[in-house]
Amino acid sequence: MYRTLTVLVENNPGVLTRVTSLFSRRGYNIDSLAVGRTENPAISRMTIVVEEDNNVIDQVTKQLHKLVDVIKVDDITEEEYVDRELVLVKTDADATVRGEIMQIVEIFRARIVDIGQNTLTIEATGDASKIRAIIEALKPFHIRELVRTGKIAMLRGGRFTTTKSGD
Amino acid sequence: MRQKGAQILTKCLAEEKVEAIFGYPGGAVLDIYDALYHSPLKHYLVRHEQGAAHAADGYARATGKPGVCIATSGPGATNLVTGLANAYMDSVPLVAFTGQVATPMLGRDSFQEADIYGITLPITKHNFLVKETGDLPRVIKESFHLAATGRPGPVLIDLPKDVCQKEASSGYPQNSQLRGYRPLPESDPLQIEEAAAAIAGARRPVLCAGGGAVISGGSAALRQLAERCSIPVTTTLMGKGVFPDDHPLALGMLGMHGTRPANYAVNECDLLIAAGVRFSDRVTVRADAFAPEARIIHIDIDPAEIGKNVQAHIPVVGDVKTVLEQLCRQLPEKEEGAPWPARLARWKEKYPLKYERNSGKIKPQYVVEQICRVTGGRAIITTEVGQNQMWAAQYYTFTRPRTFITSGGLGTMGFGLPAAIGAQIGRPGETVFNIAGDGSIQMNIQELSTAVSYRLPIKIAVLNNGYLGMVRQWQDIFYGGRLAHTEIPGPDYVKLAEAYGAVGMRVSKPAEVPPALEKAMEITDRPVLIDFMVDRKENVMPMIPPGGTVSKMLEE
User: Fold this and answer.
1) Are B209 and B245 a contacting pair, CB within 8 Å?
2) Cα–Cα separations (whole angstroms), residue B506 to A12, B327, B433, B448
3) Could you confirm whether domain B189-350 is CATH 3.40.50.1220?
4) Active-site residue B49, yes or no?
5) Which of B125, B180, B302 faces A70 most closely, judged by CB atoms?
6) Considering only alpha carbons, which residue of chain A is nearest residue B180?
7) Chain A partners of B129 at a C-beta cutoff of 8 Å?
8) For A62-76, how does the pLDDT look when each residue is reduced to its tens digit (9 = 90+)?
């Protein structure tokens, strides 16, 4: 099963390596990992999607906690949260199919961000199911390249995964 | 006050009251050694950086204080790697300093450059690459704090040459501020209550104490709980010494080469109280068939140990000593004469460890028993890895914690001699005995020179069978006796010892064993190596074959 972890880490050099090498040496499967600085430049937030059962997730969380640069780990899978992923898709698009592709883009509220001689580059944002759906919809036009960010997530409403003092 | 990085380093080490540094100079650490030249800190020059790491490790295990070692960049640093991995597996507090090429040279494949920070990520509790001299006091403070608190472990600090040369303010911080580090988790009182209730209700309880019980200083608390509630005690290899082997409730070591009473007890118990153990595969042999009838209370300071290898029914996160004391307070005294301890006592009588005593050959077990006799069971024993290690664990009667120093997790051949050096330096008043095999001793034999230089009276008993004995034993039992490359001719150990300036003796007959050991005990100004020509084909027994269960136990 897929679990979503949000992890606050010290923004130290090497912290990403510490986290990813922990996953590889203990044999845990990462589905996606997104990382970036938070409102506090000394702290980064990682959103990690892990495909493991509950026992293993328990170990993952504890092992992450052991890393000195890891400040906080939250498994938000069972919580109410907003999640987004961003994808860029470059697809074959000669004059005969452009209209059709633009309709698909419209339906998914995605955007065309670049046009080539025979290609279109589409930017889409959404949760995992929406991203999956738009990729499926574009497949018949022959996807030439695809790049995605991995999921980022945040709890809904007045609930937080930050540290208490906000630092 | 502004000082050079190297001087800040020596000053901080003095602040940490470091009594011994094990190291080896080189180009990238010239500035550190120049600062040591002007410092009262005591530095011990080893002959190989692996020896420095193991000596610091032996020092730490014998004293409970962090061991400190220094190596230069590149090959010096990579030579520390085995020692760091060893300390990490056995939760030993070390602070290792490595030189590094100057920061402008980093990443250019410079002379003697190795990414030791990257290399040691998975084998240190934490590590640092210092890029600003001004960070040094904080990093050193944090390193000692990290190494010694919570579940201890090695910390490495990589020091580029220019960081040691530049000047910065040298004020040493009073405490470290690591917001992501919580070394002492509070135990949940409800879990302790549940554990106490389980102990009170158990009919066949067994205590299993490991390295964590030693580290937490839990020896007295363990004994108190065992005696108060009449609970038999087994120890892991790493737990040897935390409970006296000669105590009526002692079952001896459990696991692959454990005693029959210990393994039978774990197999039949209805409650296993595991204190500071990590359920290594050498203990459980087959994790899914381990303690099949028992509820398991697992006490450990490291939450990640709970449920890692064996699922616990009652997990208690916390310091072993504190938790055992709390349990003791909640439990009533049990009256004497309970049937379970009496049954185990009968097993102990029926199934003692045994070997052929009248073969006319020197049995290695006999040598260990005689070492125990001449030292009154009071020596600090270090071991190499393999048969020598198992015989030392089985046949020496340990009565005090921190007296059995062995490479439990990593199983590092060549550990015992440098570890004995560190232990002797840390505990100068004690007798330190390295029980070695002829294979292992050759892996760090150069450290004999270190021991001679500092006139350390360590004793080395080489159980010489001309084989890599444990591997040969497996080949004999599981590989049809095809002895592929396990016969290992050695040098003349007497001449070798003498060449280094140590005393060398050879013992070829059983009757010569006691007088040779007694003579060795009288030598106090240099190391002694005794070459015991033991029975070449002796095996370590009993043995649970890999993947087997207690019922499959082998005995000769």
Assistant:
1) no
2) 57, 51, 16, 17
3) yes
4) yes
5) B180
6) A71
7) 13-14
8) 999 999 999 999 999
- Rounded (5°) CA angle B353-B355-B358: 145
pTM summary value: 0.95
| Catalytic hit among B7, B11, B22, B49 | B49
Per-residue pLDDT band for B556 (boundaries 50, 70, 90) equals low
Distance from CA of A63 to the nearest CA of B (A): 6
Write the pLDDT tens digit of every residue in B451-462: 999 999 999 999
Cα separation, B400 vs B395, whole angstroms: 15
Return residues 54-93 of A near B (CB < 8 Å). 55, 58-59, 62-63, 65-72
Phi, psi of B119 (to 5 degrees): -65, -35
Topology annotation, domain B2-169: Rossmann fold (3.40.50)
> What CATH number labels B364-533?
3.40.50.970
Q: Where in chain A is the domain with CATH 3.30.70.1150?
A: 82-152
pLDDT band (50, 70, 90) for residue A164: low
8 Å CB contact of A69 and B307: no
Which residue of B117, B181, B307 is in closest CB contact with A68? Answer: B181
Which residues make up the CATH 3.30.70.260 domain(s) of chain A? 2-75
Question: Under DSSP, is residue B114 helix (H, G, I), strand (E, B) or coil?
Answer: coil
CATH code for the structural domain at A2-75: 3.30.70.260
Quick: pLDDT tens for B3-20.
999 999 999 999 999 999
In total, the C-beta contacts within 8 angstroms joining chain A to chain B are 41
Q: Which of A10, A21, A72 sits opposite B122 (nearest CB)?
A: A21
Cis peptide before B546 (omega within 30 of 0): no
- Is the Cβ of A114 closer than 8 Å to some Cβ of chain B? no
List the CATH code of the domain at A82-152: 3.30.70.1150
Q: In angstroms, how far is CA B281 from the centroid of its own chain?
A: 17
